[in-house]
Amino acid sequence: MVVIGYAGGPPGAVVALLAFVIALFLLWARELGFRGAWEKFGLQSLSPPLWKQDNIDRFKALFADEQKLVKACTISVALIAASMLLPRNLVVFIFLAAIALGVFEVYRNTNSTTTRPGTRIN
C-alpha cells in the first residue's frame, strides 16, 4: 500500500497511510460506534514509545479482522489510483464525500439500535 502510495509522489505515501487509518477507523466505528472504535484503537491509553508490548498488542487487535483490513487497503489504493487518473481537487472532493458517507452510516447504525423514548418495552 505504501509503495503504491509512493507512486503518486512522495506525499502520496502519507496520504495512503492517512486514508488507510481513516477507513479502518470508520469500518470499526460502523460496527462498534465512534466511542467503541476509539476504545478499540486504544488511542486514549497509548504510552510512549509506540513499540512497547502493550501498544503492540493493542495494534494487533486492530488487524485481527482481515475483511476490514482488506477493505481499508482497497480504499487507500483506490484513492491513490484515482489521484493518478483524475485532477487532485476532484479526488479530494470524492474522498471527503466518502468520509461523510461513512460518518453518516455510523450515525445511522448507532441510532437505529438505541431505544427511542416513548416506545413500549416488552
In short:
77% of the residues lie in helices and 0% in strands. The chain is mostly helical and 122 residues long. Helix 2 (10-41) packs antiparallel against helix 4 and helix 4 (66-85) packs antiparallel against helix 5.
Total DSSP helices: 5
Give me the count of strands. Answer: 0
Uncertain residue ranges: none
Q: What is the H/E order? A: HHHHH
Fraction of helical residues: over 70%
Radius of gyration: 17 Å
Q: How is the biggest beta sheet arranged?
A: none
Question: By helix and strand content, what is the structural category?
Answer: mainly alpha
Shape summary:
globular
Distance between the termini: 50 Å
- Portion in strands: under 5%
Average pLDDT works out at 78
What features would you describe in this structure?
- It is a single chain.
- The protein is mainly alpha-helical.
- It contains 5 helices and no strands.
- The protein has helices at residues 2-7, 10-41, 53-62, 66-85, 88-113.
- α2 (10-41) runs antiparallel to α4 (66-85), α2 packs parallel to α5 and α4 runs antiparallel to α5 (88-113).
- The longest helix has 32 residues, at 10-41.
- The radius of gyration is 17 Å and the shape is globular.
- The relative contact order is 0.14.
- The mean pLDDT is 78.
